[in-house]
Amino acid sequence: MTSPLIEVQVDGRENKMDTRNGFLLKRPRFHNMCGTLSLAVVTLALAGCAAGAKIQPAPAETAAFKGPSVERPSDGQQGFVIHEDPSMNAESREEFEHAVSLLNDGKNEKAIELLAKVTEQASGVTAPHIDIAVAYMRIGKLEPAEQHLKTALGLVPDHPVASNEYGLLLRRSGRFKEAREVYEKAIASFPEYLPVHRNLGVLCDLYLNDPACALKQFEIYSEGMPADAHVKIWIAELRMRSGH
Predict the structure, then answer these.
(1) Distance, CA of 143 to CA of 13 (rounded, Å)
(2) Domain that holds residue 190
(3) What is the tens place of the pLDDT at every residue in 164-187?
(4) 121-141 residue pLDDT tens
(5) Helix (H) or strand (E) holding 148
(6) Do 41 and 131 form a contact (C-beta atoms < 8 A)?
(7) Model pTM?
(8) What's the structural domain count of the chain?
(9) Does residue 228 fall inside a structural domain?
(10) CB–CB of 26/82 below 8 Å?
């Protein structure tokens, strides 16, 4: 039995786990001073960074599903809504949930084995592709990670989470110009998705020698995430270096 069309509203201002209606969204967790971002995993199909994420089946009168997409909420709230039709059977759901536990325990290779099966069965769902890409990046296998991120972005071209992860991968690969292009495209589509601002700031500061860009992005991020003390320090250092 296939799952119904799901709408997920995501707002990029919190870094928390939140379970609604039996589904678990993934949230970014910041790790080190270089601003690397890893993702906690999901137990269904859709991913994001949200305060008060809302997950609900589409109304009965919803038009026929036309394929995965991402858009802004229709009620004017900040964030993004991802539309997917996750035709994931019960076995794949269980495998996905098991992969979640393995990833949380740092057992990336075993998680990859399960996620590979899930992506074959539910190839049209973005989250398994994003999650397996994160697992591959954790063990330093960037080529398969890139292929899965490209698949996710092929399904939903402006997917903010996939774009953020792809920017990180490109940075790790030394492809700094491409990383900047990916980040800037993501910001143009969803400027409220704050992790992208943070990671673009890191890229500009440490890899592109563009302190003006770094300062701007860190300030935008810090306005939405004032509790991040690391970024406040980076802002102060950039202002001091620029004489402000």
Answers:
(1) 31
(2) 6-241
(3) 999 999 999 999 999 999 999 999
(4) 888 888 889 999 999 999 999
(5) helix 142-155
(6) yes
(7) 0.73
(8) 1
(9) yes
(10) no
Residue 158 has a CB neighbour count (10 Å cut-off) of: 17
Q: What is the band of 53 on the pLDDT scale with cuts at 50, 70, 90?
A: very low
Cβ(218)–Cβ(238) under 8 Å?
Answer: yes
pLDDT reported for residue 243 = 80
More confident residue, 128 or 234: 234
Whether 113 is in a domain gets the answer yes
- 221: DSSP letter: H
CA dihedral 15, 231, 220, 151 (to 10 degrees): -50
- Please indicate, yes or no, if residue 97 is contained in any of the structural domains: yes
DSSP-assigned states of every residue in 43-97: SSS-----SS-EEEEPPTTPPPP-S-EEE--TTS-SSEEEEE-----HHHHHHHH
Buried b (16+ CB within 10 A) or exposed e, 23-60: bbbbbbebeeeebebbbbbbbbbbbbbbeebbbeeeee
Tokens of 112: 């990859």
